[in-house]
TrEMBL record:
Organism from which the protein derives: Gorilla gorilla gorilla (Western lowland gorilla)
Topology versus the membrane: Multi-pass membrane protein
Higher taxonomy: Eukaryota, Metazoa, Chordata, Craniata, Vertebrata
Gene3D superfamilies membership: Rhodopsin 7-helix transmembrane proteins (1.20.1070.10)
Name of the molecule in the record: G-protein coupled receptors family 1 profile domain-containing protein
Segments traversing the membrane: 6-24, 36-55, 75-97, 136-157, 177-199
Main location: membrane
Keyword Cell membrane carried by entry: yes
Amino acid sequence: LSLLDIVLCLTVIPKVLAIFWFDLRSISFPACFLQMFIMNSFLTMESCTFMIMAYDRYVAICKPLQYSSIITDQFVARAAIFVVARNGLLTMPIPILSSRLRYCAGHIIKNCICTNVSVSKLSCDDITLNQSYQFVIGWTLLGSDLILIVLSYFFILKTVLRIKGEGDMAKALGTCGSHFILILFFTTVLLVLVITNLARKRIPPDVPILLNILHQLIPPALNPIVYGVRTKEIKQGIQNLLRRLC
């Protein structure tokens, strides 16, 4: 999750800052399509990672005695390969389809980043296949991950409600706290972005662009904060640092 957040930020934020600080607006076609590929693939990789983390929480709470035999090093390695292979291969056609279009309607993208929609609109060719593929793949990957996450938490909640030991319920829910908060941030920003794009005619054109950039920035910025605050060792380290400063 940390690696995905770092790559997403390094793909988007430096170029956005170069545009606003130094007015460096130009970008080559290969760099634009590479940025498009990384944004699409790593965004779905992050969603898939959340799904696997939800399964990890499900096994930890619903099958605690079998946790060490299910969540092994081999499982983690296979899960990592699955995350990269599934999302990398299925999102790769998006920039490929965009690169095969003829661009004769100008070379000025009405965005700060190379999104598929912003780039393909500059083409004189039919972009129905391009947009349809991104729509289907995006909703299939993100939708399936979200459904599996919801199912995991359904079984987790079902198991937690059966716990009768004092404090055990709070401990079990605390195990899922950080993960649930991160999913909430991720899906909320994504849903707001989708809704603003659907209602594009009713809102200023700059709003979807701003939300698109914030979606690349807010979850990666909040992920380490949420996990850091809830980690005992990091809490103690911050407290020790504050004591020294005081």
